[in-house]
Amino acid sequence: MDKALVKTNIQIALPSGYYGTTVPHSGLVAKYFRVVGAGVIDADYRGSIGVVLCNFGKERFEVKKGDQTAQLICGQIFYPETEDVQVLDSTERDSGGFGSTGKKTYAQN
């Protein structure tokens, strides 16, 4: 696997309390199996947005100006009230991790 940090020469000013994250452009993944590594852009960052591209394919992959490699998603940061507890309530899943439920998360007809 090859990876590279590609600078976009795009700069943004997010409002305080918001963040941005880079995600793959679906066509890039579907056609070429190239993945964009997640990156978080803080509200006070003013530099060029970088996109981490990972090439899982066998062929060399060249990024040209104007190529759609990633998308920027912005979200609001939520700061919940927290409290320290000795024991958490038990759930059906408990501490089961990735894939532990085996349940489908979409509606079935």
TrEMBL record:
Q: What is its EC number?
A: 3.6.1.23
Biological pathway: Pyrimidine metabolism; dUMP biosynthesis; dUMP from dCTP (dUTP route): step 2/2
Which is a Pfam family this sequence falls into? dUTPase
User: GO molecular-function annotation terms?
Assistant: dUTP diphosphatase activity; magnesium ion binding
Please report the stretch or stretches of sequence annotated as the dUTPase-like domain.
2-102
For the region Disordered, give the residue spans.
90-109
Q: Which organism is it from?
A: Muntiacus reevesi (Reeves' muntjac)
Q: What protein am I looking at?
A: Deoxyuridine 5'-triphosphate nucleotidohydrolase
Question: Which InterPro entries does this one have?
Answer: dUTPase (IPR008181), dUTPase-like (IPR029054), dUTPase-like_sf (IPR036157), dUTPase_trimeric (IPR033704)
Report TM segments. Answer: none
Described function: Involved in nucleotide metabolism via production of dUMP, the immediate precursor of thymidine nucleotides, and decreases the intracellular concentration of dUTP so that uracil cannot be incorporated into DNA.
Asked if the Swiss-Prot or TrEMBL record annotates the protein with the keyword Hydrolase, the reply is yes
Provide the reaction this enzyme catalyses. dUTP + H2O = dUMP + diphosphate + H(+)
**Biological process GO terms, please?**
dUMP biosynthetic process; dUTP catabolic process
Keywords attached to this Swiss-Prot or TrEMBL record, sorted alphabetically, are: Hydrolase, Magnesium, Metal-binding, Nucleotide metabolism
Q: Cofactors per UniProt?
A: Mg(2+)
